[in-house]
Each structure stands twice: as C-alpha cells, then as structure tokens.
Amino acid sequence: xxxxxxxxxxxxxxxxxxxxxxxxxxxxxxxxxxxxxxxxxxxxxxxxxxxxxxxxxxxxxxxxxxxxxxxxxxxxxxxxxxxxxxxxxxxxxxxxxxxxxxxxxxxxxxxxxxxxxxxxxxxxxxxxxxxxxxxxxxxxxxxxxxxxxxxxxxxxxxxxxxxxxxxxxxxxxxxxxxxxxxxxxxxxxxxxxxxxxxxxxxxxxxxxxxxxxxxxxxxxxxxxxxxxxxxxxxxxxxxxxxxxxxxxxxxxxxxxxxxxxxxxxxxxxxxxxxxxxxxxxxxxxxxxxxxxxxxxxxxxxxxxxxxxxxxxxxxxxxxxxxxxxxxxxxxxxxxxxxxxxxxxxxxxxxxxxxxxxxxxxxxxxxxxxxxxxxxxxxxxxxxxxxxxxxxxxxxxxxxxxxxxxxxxxxxxxxxxxxxxxxxxxxxxxxxxxxxxxxxxxxxxxxxxxxxxxxxxxxxxxxxxxxx
Length: 467
Ligand code: GLU
Known about the structure:
By secondary structure, this protein is α/β, with parallel strands linked by helices. It has 16 helices and 12 strands. Strands 9-8-7-6-10-11-12 form a 7-stranded mixed beta sheet, sandwiched between helices. A 5-stranded mixed beta sheet has the order 1-2-4-3-5. Strand 7 and strand 8 (255-258) form a beta hairpin. Residues 69-71, 93, 145, 147, 176, 328, 353, 356-357, 360 line the site of glutamic acid.
C-alpha cells in the first residue's frame, strides 16, 4: 500500500479530462491542489493508565464552496496521501451531484480492534477538539461525516463535543451521519448503498449500453459480486437483490465465497454474526483468498471496501461486464485502462457512491432548518389526497376500498422524501455524465471529471481571483 500513490491516481484521472475543458493550466492547478492540510498528533490516556500518541489528518481540498464536506476514516493505513486523494474525490463528487460543498476528508491512523469503546470515544472527542481549535470544523466551515471505520456513534461524539464549545444555533450542522436523536436524518445510514443501487439501475436502463455488453436492460436477473459487507456493500446488495438481482460472490476480511445460484443476503449476514466469518456458508464454495472472488464470473462487480483493489495484478482476469465502484478509488488507473480495453462498463466512484454526501446535504439542511422533512406538509397532503378521492367517488361509480384509500393518501415522511431526493439526484447526475460522454467520446470516468471540473472551474472564474 505504501508505494501506491492514491492522490496521484486521482490527478491522473483529472488530467485525462482537463484537455476537454476550457480552463487554463493555472486554474486547473488550483482546482487540483489541496487547499488546507492539517496534520495533528495528540496523546490519549489508555484504560490501563498508559499514554498513546495518536496521529490524524483533516484535508480541505477545495474552498470554492463552503462549508467543505467529507468523511472521517479510522484505519491503520490512513495517511496524508490517502486523505488528500479522498478529499479531492469529495470535491468532484459534490460537484457531480450538485451538492454545494467543497471537498474534504479526515482520518485517524488507528487500529480500532486495539482500543476499547471508551478509548475510541476519548480519541474521537480529542480529535474533534483539535479540529475546533484550528477552525477545521463547523456548520459553515467544514462538516465531517462517517467513512470507513466510523458511523453514527462517532458522529454523535463529535456533535456532542462541538456543542460543548459552541452556542451557535446551527451547531448540530457541524457533522452529518449523526444518530436521529442528535439531529440525524432518516435514510442517511442506507444512503450510500441506496445511491449505488440507483446508479446501477440507471446504467442498466440504457438499452444501447446494455446491448453493447450483451446484456438485457434492467437490474432484474443480473448476477453480482460484492467486495465488503459493511454499510455500503450491505445496503447496495440489499437494494440490488430486492430489485431481482442475484448475489453470487462475496469478499470480506476473512476470505471470499461464491455460489452460482445465489446467496441469500440476510442469511449470510446472520451466519457471519453468529460465526464471525462468511466462510463455510451453506452451499457456497470457499475460495482460496479474499481477492479471488473479484475475478469470478458475474454481470456486475461492486467493490465496496477500500482503494486499489482492482489493479494491474488482477484486472486482466476480471470477468464482469459492469464495474460499479461503490468504494472510493477501488480501481487503479492502470487497471481502468485494462478493463476499458476489455469493454467493461465502469461506473465511476465519484458518481456512484455520492449517495452518502447527497443525504448528508439533506441532513445539514434539516439542521439549519431545525425541522424534520415532511413535518409541516404530511397531514396537509394526506387531507388533500382524501378530498381528491372523495371527489372521484362523488363524480363516478368508483368506490375505493379501505386499503386503497390508505395507500393512495399516504403523505411523505422524512425517509420517503430523502429517498426520492436521492433518486432524483442520482438519475439526473448519471444522465448529465452520459451527455458529456457522448459529446466528447470518452469513458464515464473521464466524462464525470469533465462535468465536475467545469462546475468547479466556473466558480473559480467567477470568484474573480484571477483578475
Ligand atoms: N464518507 C462518505 C463519502 O466518501 C460521505 C461523506 C459525507 O457525507 O460528507 O462520500
């Protein structure tokens, strides 16, 4: 991993797209560079009384829009290069889905398995305190969120710490992905996986693309392999299987399994909960190691773990027709070229996993509005729909059953509104990328960078910083 230069990889993709934009070199350099990098070390007291020195980062990649936005990652291998790369991807991701934030990312180089929950809480609160001190967090400045190794629990600690130091009315908007009771929004947990599903569904609805791959349109009936059953991989798989796709392969830390006639996702989750492993799951073949399943046959491969999983070493053996990048940076640029050559349709990460930040945006809006989505209009809508049904009954011989009445007069609650906002965003963004793909005759990744660079560059031009 140490020789892998992730930020350089992101910039290679940027450089492929840049010539298709109208911007001069200086402006392109300004977009590419990370605007602020903060590296911190701090001590924490272990449960046994000893002291550990912890290292962390926060990178604000682009200040073209504020606040900046992006997750916080807890993993042993977190480093500055990775954090910069992920922050840059956030800038392009937000631009692609029209979320009005600059990109950021944070991380703490920590192996969670070595620390107790209390110790992780101390680490998280101290990290937050360090961010506050340097003005690297706040609803108008920089808004973290969950990423690999973090979730709503950590975001709850962050908002609580922030509130100790701030009486800002909008303090809850300092972080997203929070528990509902602390200002979270319904649907945020599912959001990234749900967005991955909407993106794949949109890609699979395009008759010409599917024909070129020798596939039918639609998700129904397609087979897929998922790498990682964390929050993103699990929810993507859940929505894929609910839409009729068949999960045939799974990779996790402990290894990988394959089952041609389909793995029942919920049974596998229950089995892993019980045994601590996906291995020896009933009816599935145990593969030699965790990466073997990446080169097994299926229609779609969904890497939903870490970067650089499909690389020069295994790309030539990949057998799927569609690579759906649910993780950030799962494909090296060398592997991308190999897969492209093989005719694989690559749905790029910056677009496909944007569901998380889209719903984070909704959560931030909820925090600024201080009201749950749907609270004001739900009952009003239901009454209006009831009046419509009454009018239809009065003017015709139609009589609605109680069940029909109930179904037809449902007002939207927060989850339904978040889901529909996410669906709209993912569908619109995909079609915008397709527009750039056909205009410039490039692949989807380059098209997505063209769209993103154009949006960010236009703002820099308008900022008048280059008189
Ligand atoms: N960590 C997620 C990502 O990589 C979500 C970021 C956010 O919600 O701000 O997109």
